[in-house]
Amino acid sequence: MKRALSSMLMVGSLVLAGAVPGVAIAQDAKLPDAKAGEQLFVQGDMSRGVLACVTCHGDAGNSTIPANPNLAAMPHEYLAKQLHDFAPQGDKPAVRTGPDGAPSIMSTIAPALTPEDIQNVSLYLSQQALDWDAAGTATDEATMDHGQKIWRAGIEDRKVPACAACHSANGAGLPGEFPRLAGQHPEYILEQLKLFSSGDRANAIMHDIASRMTPPDLAAVANYAAGLR
Predict the structure, then answer these.
(1) Where are the domains of the chain?
(2) By Cβ atoms counted within 10 A, which residue in 71, 95, 218, 219 is the most buried?
(3) Distance CA 86, CA 210 (A)
(4) Which residues pair with 178 in a beta bridge?
(5) Under the phi-then-psi rule, with left for phi > 0, alpha for psi from -120 to 50, and beta for the rest, what region is 118?
(6) For 87-138, what is each residue's pLDDT tens digit?
């Protein structure tokens, strides 16, 4: 378990947790514009095939659709990386896909975004407040104890590290590196864990962790994480 934790922290890049290689803002680059990001989020740009983000992700990034993630108050760097990963990079396929490698709806939207768009909308969302009254929460009381154990201590005999090691005890994450999971929809968290486990969402560290967990393990920790505050 110690070796797994050490490896995970050394790499420092998950995509339920992810650092942001390749999308950092250069010193001489134009600073992101939150107002422009808000306009794109609310109105989209149909001339380029960019749908209004608010349609799926809700007012100010507070999604009311369990399949779509809450984006409000997520770290700017994390959001930028995810938008970057939905689009193919040159001759390389997109890092993020759906089940069995099928394109997701974001696979049709992200390629139309410019690097400036990505920075702008990510900054806008990072500045929005999460509506905790409407946020995702735990829905399965029967799995709470199991989920809590995995979150706090991992699964030692299968070398699964504690989720709290990177996402923090209260699920707040680490800004700029590991995303907040508290208040995320449990259905969304579970779907991402399944994609990590299958390898359809490319992330070596999260694949290594999630693939050692059973379906009940994944469901329990997704439920518990959503209920953290």
Answers:
(1) 2-13+134-227, 34-126
(2) 71
(3) 21
(4) 174
(5) alpha
(6) 998 888 898 989 998 988 899 899 999 999 999 999 999 999 999 999 999 9
> Residue length, the chain?
229
Question: What pTM was computed for the model?
Answer: 0.86
- Is CATH 1.10.760.10 what the domain over 2-13+134-227 is classified as, yes or no? yes
What is the CATH T-level fold of the domain 34-126, as seen in this structure? Answer: Cytochrome Bc1 Complex; Chain D, domain 2 (1.10.760)
**Residue 12 phi, psi dihedral angles, 5° rounding:** 60, 30
